[in-house]
């Protein structure tokens, strides 16, 4: 077997372990899940987890870091997709909501199991969360400065808007009444009301 095949197999195993960890943590919580639960879901031996990850907490950290970075990338891509603050905001709200609906299981884990992380890992994740908050708050501030949003406190508005998306992970179900796209459209309208978007002439 070549070195590249070894790496490919190792990457595949790590990915299986991360997916299994998400499933276990979502069902039983971090503290209620064992390494045996995770490896059983992944279809691997119990020892396999320690070949690729130092601990169960390390798995949670990797899941959380990947999830938060993906969320940040989603928001930044939405902002970059337009020049006007209103269009940027619409893209952010729609994409952020759809992202959390589609990845609701992972989102539930990374948002509700933060306290299980080590202090160092918590600090790293919170740093990414601060950037996410800054991106949304900055967008609202630019809209206020441009006169297209009427909101006296962009900081609180950003927290409220991010909380809407995050809470999707708590209640959204794949077999539920609304599709991710329907939720995205509704949250766009809700978000525009929160930031006090002014009706455009013409």
Q: Over the alpha carbons, how many angstroms does the gyration radius reach?
A: 19 Å
Shape: elongated
Main beta sheet: none
Helix/strand order: HHHHHHHHH
The number of helical elements comes to: 9
What are the low-pLDDT stretches, counting only 5+ consecutive residues below 50?
A: none
Helix content: over 70%
| Share in β-strands | under 5%
Tell me what you see in this structure.
The mean pLDDT is 90. α5 (85-102) runs parallel beside α8 (154-171) and α6 (104-112) packs across α8. The longest helix is centred in the middle third of the chain and has 27 residues, at 119-145. This protein starts with a helix and ends in an 8-residue tail after the last helix. The protein has 9 helices and no strands. By secondary structure, the protein is mainly alpha-helical. The protein has helices at 3-28, 35-42, 48-52, 56-80, 85-102, 104-112, 119-145, 154-171, 180-194.
Give a quick summary of the entry.
This protein has 202 residues and is mostly helical. Helices cover 75% and strands 0% of the residues. The protein is elongated, with a radius of gyration of 19 Å.
Descriptive keywords:
202 residues, mainly alpha, 9 helices, elongated
Layout of SSEs?
Blueprint lengths: L2 H26 L6 H8 L5 H5 L3 H25 L4 H18 L1 H9 L6 H27 L8 H18 L8 H15 L8
Helix pairs in contact: 1-2, 1-4, 1-6, 4-5, 4-6, 4-7, 5-7, 5-8, 5-9, 6-8, 7-8
């Amino acid at each position: 077997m070549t070195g590249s095949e070894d790496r490919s197999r190792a990457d595949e195993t790590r990915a299986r372990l991360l997916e299994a960890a998400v499933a276990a943590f979502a069902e039983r919580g971090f503290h209620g899940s064992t390494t045996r639960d995770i490896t059983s879901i992944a279809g691997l031996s119990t020892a396999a987890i320690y070949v690729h990850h130092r601990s169960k907490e390390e798995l949670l950290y990797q899941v959380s870091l990947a999830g938060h970075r993906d969320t940040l990338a989603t928001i930044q891509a939405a902002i970059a997709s337009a020049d006007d603050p209103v269009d940027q905001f619409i893209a952010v709200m729609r994409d952020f909501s759809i992202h959390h609906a589609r990845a609701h299981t992972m989102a539930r884990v990374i948002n509700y199991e933060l306290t299980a992380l080590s202090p160092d890992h918590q600090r790293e994740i919170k740093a990414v969360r601060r950037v996410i908050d800054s991106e949304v708050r900055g967008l609202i501030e630019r809209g206020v400065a441009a006169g297209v949003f009427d909101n006296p406190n962009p900081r609180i508005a950003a927290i409220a808007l991010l909380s809407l998306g995050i809470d999707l992970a708590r209640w959204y179900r794949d077999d539920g009444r609304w599709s991710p796209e329907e939720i995205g459209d509704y949250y766009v309208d809700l978000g525009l009301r929160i930031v006090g978007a002014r009706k455009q002439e013409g």
